[in-house]
Design brief:
This protein has helices spanning 2-28, 30-41. It contains 2 helices and no strands.
Amino acid sequence: MSVVKKSIATIKAYTLWLLNLRIVRSINRSDFWIDAASFETV
């Protein structure tokens, strides 16, 4: 059981890491800031 629990924890951590990476990438994209600025002016 401990091996299964460890693998599940690893998968959860990896999924969280991927999610963080995707969020950071989308924030760092310049067109994200351009979209936000144009949205605020409208």
